[in-house]
Write a structure and sequence with these properties.
The chain has 184 residues and is mainly alpha-helical. The chain contains ten helices and three strands, in the order ααβαααββααααα. The chain has one domain. Strands 1-3-2 form a three-stranded antiparallel beta sheet. Helix 3 packs across helix 5.
Length: 184
Amino acid sequence: MVDGRLNSKTERVQTTVLGRLSYMAVPDFQSLFIPVLTFVSDGKEHSLSETIEVLAQQLGLSEADRDEMLPSGKQRKFDNRVSWARTYLQKAQLLIHTGRSNVRITERGLKVLRDNPTYINTKFLKQFPEFLAFHTANGDKGNTTDDNNRLRQEMIEKTSQTPQEILETSYQSLRQTLAQELLE
């Protein structure tokens, strides 16, 4: 850990955990950026499963929180959010992929930690050209309008959901709406 701290959202929750012996809800994936960077700041290679386990312990997640599933029921929410946090940090070249499910912090990542930011989010990551290129790229090579792309990016920035969670929630909502319309 850098100066023994996590980001501001996690600090409040951790204080609650230690002060009142209660547990926290699963943090959003952007709130995991600093904890992930801090965990890998030793410069060693770390697997996804190791990162998930250590962060869950550090954040004081309950078993119920750990077992909470995405709307699809196919993946645990916390695991998904840690994975997305790592992906975003890799796209900003703060982490480097070193092998199957393994990452290591880069010099850029260490510099960011040394700068001691209070919070890292997608807006912060946009200062890095590699992340900006990833974040603004059209997924289907020009078939998506600029407005749709902008709206998708804004949704990710303004919600606590990962891109996968947004898709699954939207899918479930469309299914419910369709089912309701068919029954009428």
